[in-house]
Every structure is written in C-alpha cells, then in structure tokens.
Amino acid sequence: MDLFDHASQKETASLAPLAERMRPTTLSEYLGQEHLTGEGRFLRRALEADQVPSLILWGPPGTGKTTLAQLVARSTGAAFETMSAVLAGVKDIRETVARAQDRWKLHRQRTLLFIDEIHRFNKSQQDALLPHVEKGTVTLIGATTENPSFEVNAALLSRCRVITLRGLEQEELVAVMRRAVADPRGLGGKVTVDDAALDFIADAAGGDARKALTALEAAAAHGGSVVDRKVAEEALQQKLLLYDKGGEEHYNVVSAFIKSMRGSDVDAALYWMTRMLEAGEDPVFIFRRMVIFASEDVGNADPRALGVAVDALRAFQLMGLPEGTLPLTQAVTYLALAPKSNAVIAAYAAVREAVTKEGALPVPMHLRNAPTKLMKSLGYGGGYKYPHNFEGNYVPEDYLPEALRARCFYTPTRNGFEAELSERYETIQQQLAARREASGEREPGEDG
C-alpha cells in the first residue's frame, strides 16, 4: 500500500456512517451479549482455546452479528471472507472455497466465511456449502434474523452451533451512544448530548444499536453542538411507534394488516403495512404473510394473486430497500382489492378430516398402476378411460375410493374467476351423477 492508498482509506473511513466507524475492534468493546462473550461463557472460551466451530448467529437487526463474526476472525487469525446470501450464488461459494483451499495449502491459514442473511440461501446453495463446512475447509458463520430451524436445512444446521443474540437493553444502547459521542472515531467530544435525548433515541431504537447510532448521528447533524430531547425528536421526524416485534402488539398489528386485506380495505392495509415497516419489521416476514393470504383468502377467485405476491417478493429481493417498498405496496393494494374466496383452505380442511376419519382407503382397481403382466391379470388398471381419447378431453369417471364417492370437498364461490370454476365443477358433478344413475350405481348410504 502506498501513501495515496493509505490516504484514500483514511478518507473513506471518515466518510463512513457513525455506526460503521464505531464498529468494535476488540471483544472488550463489544456490548450487549454478555451471555455469549462474558467471562467463562461459550464464545469467549472457544476464542481463548482457538476452537471456534461453525456458527449460526440468530438475532434481530443491529445486535452485532457481523461485528461478532469479524471479531472471531481477528481473534483466531483466520482470513475473513464475506458474502451476502441475497446476491451470492453457487459459483461464488465455489470460488470462495477454492481460495480457502489455496490459502491453507500455501500459508496454513484458516478461512472464516461469513454469510449475511443465510436464510435467503436456497436448498441447492446450502447443499453446495455443506461438504466444505463438514471437511473444515471453511469455518462458517451465518447471520440470520429468521429462526434457523425453519430456514437452514437440517444437514447444515447439524454441523453448526446456533447461538442467539438478543436486542440490546436501554442502558446498553445508551452506553454505546456515550462511547460514540466521546470516541475520536465517532463524534470526538464535539457534541454534547443530554440524558433525555439519549434515553429517547435508545427507546426509539428498539434494541437495535445500528439504528441508535444512525439516529444519534442525524440528531448531531441537526442540532449542532448541543442535542437535547427536542432536537432528537425533530431529527428523527417521527414519534416512537408502538410495535414490539416479539410481543403482543406485534401480533395485533399483523392481525390488523391481514384482516384489513381480507376486508378489502386497501387504505387500512397500507397503513398497517407501513406501521410494520417503519417499526423495523423484516419486509420478508410481511411478504410471507401476503403469500399465505393470496392462497388462503383470495385463492381461485383470482389465481393471479399468488403470482403477484411471489413476484413482489422476488422483486424486493433484487431491489432491497428503499425501492423494495414499491412492489410491496403494489402487492398489498392488489391483494386487498382482489375478489375473495376461502374455498381452498376449506377444501383442504374437509379432505384432511375425511382422510383422518376413514384412514388409508384402497385405490380403486382401474386407477392402479399395472407395470407387470401379473398385475394386469389381477385387474390392475382395468377399465381405465383415458380422458384425452374423449370429446372435450373429459369422460365421467369415479376417482375417489368407493367409501367416499359422491363426496364434495371443494365448494367454489361465485366470486371472480371462481364463478367460472363453479360452473365447470357443477357440470362435472351433474355428468357424474348421470353416469352413476345410468349404470345403476347407488349413492353411498342409499342402501341403508
């Protein structure tokens, strides 16, 4: 590195956001996770013994997952490789693994691979990573805000130690901000921030250290040399939103959001959506609820609704924030105004009840597979009518087990496209009834 490179790096560091400038460089500077890093705790013992296993760091935003990964790499002397699961693919994993193999062969240096938002990796990406974690080619540290039991496949999860990070307490956030006010890397003592302002910002940050430092930086820029509570409120330009991501109000707001879409109140749906976003909710969580809603509450009344919800999620993953609010808003307005039907979930519930009550009924002989002569001679597949050989590609036939014949599980509504499906369904049922009558078949229960 020459003088110009060094000067450029210093200038870049000075322009970085306060939260980045104040990122801890030693474990002693790291606040808020004493249950992991305190004396005698798991992570500190692992670092002291230089035996850090692959880890999954699970916790809300701004709790220090990335910082902790960097500190682990620095403490162990490992090379630090990082990638975002949103942007990386299998090719990136292979290239990183190749560098790790060369690094070990040439310098006997281990590689720590940090994957941010590891829950965004699909199964094939996780499978590509698995053998290299298993062999120890890389020590994996994955960061996620989602429950890894649901988002990380079992094979990869079994080779990692899951550690849970918690949101920072009020006093911990205040301590983080006091250090930033005094530290030369931060505000360097050029600004005075009173206790009321620090308490207000810590309260508004909701356990997120990055959010607290970003708000502190905005308040310092807004208020000059003195920051009090009024200045902090003006800088944030919003009051604290009542929304506890882990508590009752979280579920209340989510419930209001879903019920507003179900009730076709687009304005209310947008309000509750924005409440969640502004309070720091993971947008992917909102999208998931919308994908569920598209099947559960819209269903075949508008089959396009599911595609709209899924496409909006994909668009968000490509765009990120803040632009990702556009496909989110577009999908919410579409779902809220779409015709509604819960026939899909009602149909599944009815079929599930029948399966549970009747057990494993035998497959009718004409529907059974007959790959051998013996099976054909026993009547497997006998009498099956191939629908494409008939006019309209349909022929009345029974496909349910005999004990369930004439049972109707799906009851389409007359809303939207489902009205057309309802007409088709009724026509098919009428043709089936006529076929049974013509063949002299009795409906179940007619013989007493």
UniProtKB/TrEMBL annotation:
Instruction: Supply the InterPro entries for this chain.
Output: AAA+_ATPase (IPR003593), AAA_assoc_2 (IPR032423), AAA_ATPase_RarA/MGS1/WRNIP1 (IPR051314), ATPase_AAA_core (IPR003959), DNA_pol3_clamp-load_cplx_C (IPR008921), MgsA_C (IPR021886), P-loop_NTPase (IPR027417)
Sequence ranges assigned to domain AAA+ ATPase in this UniProt record: 51-168
* Keyword Nucleotide-binding in record: yes
Keywords from UniProt, A to Z, are:
ATP-binding, DNA replication, Nucleotide-binding
SMART domains in alphabetical order:
AAA
Q: Does the keyword Nucleotide-binding apply?
A: yes
GO terms for MF: ATP binding; ATP hydrolysis activity; DNA binding; enzyme activator activity; single-stranded DNA helicase activity
Q: Give the Pfam families listed for this entry.
A: AAA (PF00004), AAA_assoc_2 (PF16193), MgsA_C (PF12002)
An example GO BP is: DNA synthesis involved in DNA repair
Organism superkingdom? Bacteria
Its family remark reads:
Belongs to the AAA ATPase family. RarA/MGS1/WRNIP1 subfamily.
Function of this protein? DNA-dependent ATPase that plays important roles in cellular responses to stalled DNA replication processes.
Give the protein's recorded name: Replication-associated recombination protein A
Upper taxonomic classification of the species? Answer: Bacteria, Pseudomonadati, Myxococcota, Myxococcia, Myxococcales
